[in-house]
Amino acid sequence: MAIILAVESSCDDTSAAIAINGEIRGNRVANQDVHARYGGVVPELASRAHQEALVPVVHAVLEEAGVSLAQVDAFAVTAGPGLMGSLLVGTSFIKGLALSLQKPLLAVNHMQAHILAHFIEAPRPNFPFLCLTVSGGHTQLVLLRDYFDFEILGQTIDDAAGEAFDKSAKLLGLPYPGGPLVDKYAALGNPKAFAFPVSKMSGYNYSFSGLKTSILYFLQKQQQQDPNFIVHNRNDLCASIQSTIVQILLHKLQAAAQDLGITRIAIAGGVSANSGLRLALQQLATDKNWELFIPDFQYCTDNAGMIAMTAHLQYERGFFADQLLVPDPRMPLQPKPQA
Ligand code: KG4
Ligand code: ZN
């Protein structure tokens, strides 16, 4: 039996989880409200908030799982990618525990954990499957042949899908993070009210920065005629922006699925909580006869449950980290060497 305590602190959520034999027995997340008034994550404030939240979150999850620190067999932590200061809080904390209790350390890649979150609960995808990871920092289309055998087919060359949502929301005067608010107002609007350009990228890569610029110019032009244009059209603007982002995301996913002849499709990351994306994907899956996998909401946005799951799979394969682990803010997504 293996008990793993995992911590996630790569951006602005402080989270801890316990995995017992690969089963997630507790997953606690403390969100940081401190960033809302600045319109984005302030790295220095994020690290300080992690320092405050980490110990209570770890205590809470140990209690929930009915596990004591002495019973933990291995300690796991997100080692990257993410904000350096935020990663340092989590890695220093977990390294301290592993060293003092003389237990092994597991270093987890945040983007890999978003994908492997699909193995926390049934239905779990069989291999091979395609996973579109859409978060605040990344947009990646990955072909999975096995847990640690995969290939990145495409990724964004500029903004991530979550950034496209958040930056568009900011242009509409909505607070950070704007993605969930765009989702909420989009449900009340007409997605065909306004037409925004859909980027044309070669291969399976994505680009979202042009969309943001076109929204900015469009709003500036409209506001010259009606200074309250945004207030009058908020729902239609949100619906049109959301539908454009979803269209861009699904176009490449569909092309890759068709080219590779794959019908098992998964989405992961914070943006997979978007109801427009979920609905469009479900419709596409029905049309194309795809088997679709979307994790439970708590495992879509940043959480330590996905870190604990990935750590369990690494533990089984002996993929341990050096006790001197240094976090890597730009850690690439790459398969682990076979043990
Ligand atoms: O995966 P995640 O929690 O953190 C990162 O690793 O980045 O993703 C956060 C991103 C933010 O950009 C947030 O606005 C977006 O996910 N997001 C959404 C929704 N919920 C979260 N975007 C659109 N609609 C949502 N419902
Ligand atoms: Zn994430």
Write the layout of secondary structure elements.
Blueprint: E1 3-8, E2 13-20, E3 23-31, H1 43-65, E4 74-80, H2 84-101, E5 105-109, H3 110-116, E6 129-134, E7 139-146, E8 149-155, H4 161-171, H5 179-186, H6 209-225, H7 229-260, E9 264-268, H8 275-288, E10 291-293, H9 304-317
Parallel strand pairs: 1-4, 4-5, 6-9, 9-10
Antiparallel strand pairs: 1-2, 2-3, 6-7, 7-8
The structure holds 5'-O-[(R)-(carboxyoxy)(hydroxy)phosphoryl]adenosine and zinc ion.
Question: In a nutshell, what does this entry contain?
Answer:
42% of the residues lie in helices and 19% in strands. The chain is an alpha/beta fold and 339 residues long.
Keyphrases for this structure?
339 residues, alpha/beta, Nucleotidyltransferase, domain 5, 2 domains, five-stranded mixed β-sheet, binds 5'-O-[(R)-(carboxyoxy)(hydroxy)phosphoryl]adenosine, binds zinc ion
Describe the structure.
- This protein has 339 residues and is α/β, with parallel strands linked by helices.
- It has two domains: 3-115 and 302-317, Nucleotidyltransferase, domain 5 (2-Layer Sandwich), CATH 3.30.420.40; 126-294, Nucleotidyltransferase, domain 5, CATH 3.30.420.40.
- The chain has helices at residues 43-65, 84-101, 110-116, 161-171, 179-186, 209-225, 229-260, 275-288, 304-317, and strands at 3-8, 13-20, 23-31, 74-80, 105-109, 129-134, 139-146, 149-155, 264-268, 291-293.
- The strands form two sheets. A five-stranded mixed sheet has the order 3-2-1-4-5, with helices on both faces. A five-stranded mixed sheet has the order 8-7-6-9-10.
- Helix 1 packs parallel to helix 2 (84-101).
- The longest helix has 32 residues, at 229-260.
- The site of zinc ion (ZN) has 6 residues, from helix 3.
